[in-house]
Amino acid sequence: MATTKHILVALVEDKPGVLNRMASLFRRRGFNIESIAVGHSEMPNMSRMTFVINGPATVVEQVRKQLDKVVETVKVSDITGDNVITRELAFIKVKANSANRSELIQIVDIFRANIVDVAPDSVIIEATGDEDKINSLFNLVRGFGIKEISRTGRIAMTRGGAGPLPVMKKPPKTQAKGQKKATK
Amino acid sequence: MKMTGAQIICESLVKEGVEVIFGILGGALLPLYDALPHYPQLRHILVRHEQGAAHAADGYARATGKVGVCFATSGPGATNLVTGIANAHLDSAPMVAITGQVARPFIGKDAFQEVDITGITLPITKHNYLAMDADSLPGIMKEAFYLAGTGRPGPVLIDLPRDVQQESAEFNYPNKVDLPQYKPTLQGHPAQIKKAAKLIGESQRPLIIAGRGVIISKAYTELKELVEKAQIPVVTTLLGTSCFPESHALSYGMLGMHGMAYANMAVDAADLIIAIGMRFDDRATAKVSAFAPHANIIHIDIDPAEIGKNVRVDVPIVGDVKAVLGELNKLADKSEHINWVRKLDEWRKEHPSLIIRDGESLLPQYVVRQIYEVTKGEAIIVTGVGQHQMWAAQYYWYDKPNTFISSGGLGTMGFGLPAAMGAKVGCPDKTVWCIDGDGSLQMTIQELATIAQEKIGVKIAVLRNTYLGMVRQWQELFYGKRYVATPLSSPDFVKISEAYGIPALRVERREEVSPAIQKAMAEPGAFLIDFIVEPEENVYPMVPPGAALAEVLEEPRKEAKAVKDSAKLPVSNI
Known about the structure:
heterodimer, A: alpha+beta, Alpha-Beta Plaits, 2 domains, five-stranded antiparallel beta sheet, four-stranded antiparallel beta sheet, 5 helices, 27% helix, 39% strand, elongated, B: alpha/beta, Rossmann fold, 3 domains, six-stranded parallel beta sheet, 22 helices
């Protein structure tokens, strides 16, 4: 089966074990989670999770339904291919000395990244962007000598008003699970 | 009112209407067990192995439709429950399992008898809880019972540290659950139901495949109404057995690997499949790419994740089977499918699938048939897993709703005896027969002690063929008759049973079968019959693994004579 990259966004209750429940549904099917990002949402006690995974579309859809069944889940959407913005954050610690530091700063400027720490023999670059941008920056500074790199998981959001998840003031009272999707 | 955690658990069980708990105590559950005698309305049944506790709670739940409850202590007690929980999960049986856990300060320190049971049971429970303070217990208990029993039922586990049982907290049992995210869809979507009714009206060769969902939602009359109104033939899955009266003219028995040849042929030829409360298990569909090649598929199920999981579906309807069928019946037109039904009846005549050969030898099929004759089909039949399970499903005629209890999804050998025990405790006025194999029985045979101690009147028929018979059949047919690790030297079950204090008989000849069953029925309490059956008998029909439903192997022997299909009993009222 042809695998494609999928971005799943889940709105879940912020409770212990939820991430484990979600992750285990991927593990069971042998999926490698490419990246994952979890943080607070616009509602108290609700988190939003963004999973990036590679898999056959039908299997991913099956996992999405299973994720939707987790008791703490409000909704899980596959926003792959939607009009979607994705970003990730990276820290790159690069070898730099007084001789080549200014060249490095120029590259960082071009990428609209920041230097957040300077030491006698290294700097830390902070970069935000989609995966391609971070990869390009990484390739350009590689020649200086990479000491350490740390990247967050991707976060994603659809453009405009019609997002996959309605913005709610409080947790929904009568979210009918499943019916909409099943009858599409 | 202030109470200890242990008291809160007991009070909550009383509030939930629990009558019986199957369990074994241990260090981590001592405070809870210490509170139990103050609640005489909670009957505790001490089993002999925690797997038995889970299966008994499962059997109780299936027989009564209520949530079954089991207790086990931490560590090995909890891990012993795992098979039973997985079994309940795959067959959607409502269950609440409460396990002891080491005291909170010891959690995560590899303390004595500590396991991460919430981690272990994560993929095999509908939900689980680690209760970290007594204040949370009333809410957790309320939620656990609600989750277990509603929507698609399933097991819920609560892990209870020892010191939480001793901690005091205010007890106010909530009237409502606070689960904003969990709301199973009960009513089917009207537009989808309309579409389904239209497809049914247009089809020439419709077929209903009914599963355990019909039993769970008690949609017997709704199903019968649809069948009779639109004249649609019915086949059932293994776990759907007894959801529709098998003597009904439009019942064509079980489909699948050991289903009736004509039932499988019907699936193959149908132009419309109406799948009701079933999940297209691979034992039912056989080769899934060749399943119902000419048919549109309407799938009614309460679990949206089941839609499109195994087979493509043309009209999905998510909802409770009873509610959906109620609506569908209003829209479905009266119709007849005379040619289609005639065709199925021809196949039934040409391909008799239930055959008891004449002769001296004691055939397992004959034993099952005699149990049917003597009990007049009124008993609840509970089985283990293996050949005996298939014969019990095939040769007993299920006319009364919810009279067949078996381990379908997990295929758990050893399910029979403890589940029968649970069923009998739940339905003391009904006759409960456990039809088991000698291999399957020996996996949980220690529950004979529970049955004796608690005076549970289960009747046990052991079909002893001194093999792990189903595996032997596969070795015979697909592994060149190399019987590796399947022969069993089974013990003398009569002596074993009597040693446990349960009267027993051995039967080796056909003419002894019926009298022995009658004797068992006359006995007020439990009774065991050790039937020495033909050792190398095979289960037919059989769809070989990897084959399509239409490629069914039929009973090869020449002297075969059909029994069940030739005659028709009057349609019973359910």
